[in-house]
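Input.
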Amino acid sequence: FIHAQAPTSIDGIQITINPQNPVPGKNVDITLNDYLTDISTANITWVVNGQKVTSGIGKNNITLTAPALGKQDNVSILIQTNGGKQIQKSIVIKSGSVDLIWESRGYAPPLYQGKQDFAYQNSIKIIAMPHLADSSGVEIDPSTLVYNWKQDSTVLQNQSGYGKQAITITSGIVPRATTIYINVSTRDGSETASGVITLHPGSPSLVFYKDDPLYGVLYNLALGAQTTFSNQEITLLAAPFSFTIPSLTNNNLQYNWTINGAAQTSLSTNRSVTLRVQDTSADANYPVQLQLQNMKEILQGATNAITVMFVANKNNNAISL
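Output.
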């Protein structure tokens, strides 16, 4: 963040800075804009921290490097017009940054260590990690800062305030991206930083796993589009990812199973299906498709398909486990 101390004056010369939110070490463009005084023919001298940097006729802009965290650059501009008038301006440049971290509140299977996708109509938690420092370079405790949050053009007044480092938002019924803005400051406003993040929601997903009668659900191995088994029976479990559900026993999910092209309407609440072969002397293929739909959050739906191939034991007509 660039903290400008350039009071309005009757000379009509304004100082603008771009970008408004540089982090330490990034370039900062400082420009003089004249509204009443013509500075195109003026001799302009730029002084940074007491050292002359540049000067010249009509030299109305300069590019600097944002100072390190906790430091500041004092910029003085001396303007001598063609008519002999002298004008002095000054500005203080400080730096800081805010990291924004988000996590989805959608469902994931037990022990899943990956990051959940942001799905349509999901609730997500966004946490601000500000980096502001005092004059000695010591970072300020984030819990002592003031947070002002905004989603798109709406100020999140109820979630803003002192120490409110995190917010929770919900993707709307219209499937479009949302942008979150955050301004962080000390209580006296002497240190300020800002950040922005744009989130793009997408569709949730579902994955098939094997439900083993001895070891339980093998969440460590997702099943591919074609899976071969040598045993006579297999139970497939469908695991939803990023769906908004309180729990698997209390949800609004509808399971539309199709096996060998036939709809299985009796399995609309079943997460799993069991397939078995009667004739173990011949190979058998079972095409399985599942369409999963959240009946409460209408934008949340996913489809997956798998072909289960049973390989016969043609030597002794026995089943290999």
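The first strand starts at residue 13 and ends at 18.
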